[in-house]
Write a structure and sequence with these properties.
The protein is of the alpha/beta class and 196 residues long. The protein has one domain: 3-Layer(aba) Sandwich (Rossmann fold). It has nine helices and eight strands. The chain has a six-stranded parallel β-sheet with strand order 2-1-3-4-8-7, sandwiched between helices. A hairpin with a 5-residue loop joins strand 5 and strand 6.
């Protein structure tokens, strides 16, 4: 693999140049802050908190319930490893409207920066492939990143995009941490934006 040069704070805007066209589910900590920065913590984002490993499964449920909408899960390597079996369920159900973007910094930033499995031998893209997801892409450089939006638009879903980033801070964004309020906001936003 090429040397990792990506700053996590810059990747989502390149992957999702039109974020308003997606419903987003984000995992914990850094990925939630990155997604909140992309969407301005809008009504089309539901962020997880205190539910490590639940982002991909929640995204699958949203994709099934909103089959006419594009759904994107923004997760981290540690968070996804807590429920990696969800990839098998996603592959089996095969929702064409679901994309999973895993921001992989190879460490556990939420708990002190301990080295994670993906900085050693674990490859989440290979795990997604083994689960049965066929549209998979790994990016580690700016030139790789330029192709992701087209990949999501032109290949059949579900998609899995592994974004290898340098260790560094997530997007600085103060998101709403009232989960009940965020759930209601997301539900209302989804209902108001759903096609008739």
């Amino acid at each position: 693999m090429a040397q990792i040069t990506l700053d996590r704070r810059e990747v989502l805007a390149k992957i999702f140049p039109d974020p308003d066209s997606y419903l987003f589910i984000s995992g914990l900590a850094g990925s939630s802050r990155d997604a909140a920065g992309l969407t301005k913590d809008g009504a089309h984002l539901y962020s997880m908190a205190g539910a490590m490993g639940a982002a991909a499964s929640t995204g699958l449920g949203v994709a099934m319930a909103a089959a006419d909408r594009k759904v994107a899960v923004i997760t981290g390597d540690g968070e996804l490893l807590m429920n990696v079996g969800s990839l098998a369920t996603i592959a089996t159900i095969g929702p064409g409207n679901l994309s999973i973007v895993c921001i992989d910094n190879g460490c556990h930033g939420e708990t002190g920066g301990q080295t994670g499995h993906t900085s050693n031998r674990t490859d989440l893209a290979m795990m997604a492939k083994g689960a049965g997801i066929s549209s998979i892409m790994t990016v580690a450089t700016a030139s790789d990143l330029e192709a992701v939006a087209g990949f999501l638009a032109e290949t059949p879903g579900p998609h899995f995009v592994l974004v290898k980033v340098k260790d560094g801070p997530p997007t600085v964004y103060r998101r709403n941490l009232d989960l009940a309020e965020c759930r209601i906001r997301f539900r209302n936003g989804f209902q108001q934006s759903s096609p008739a």
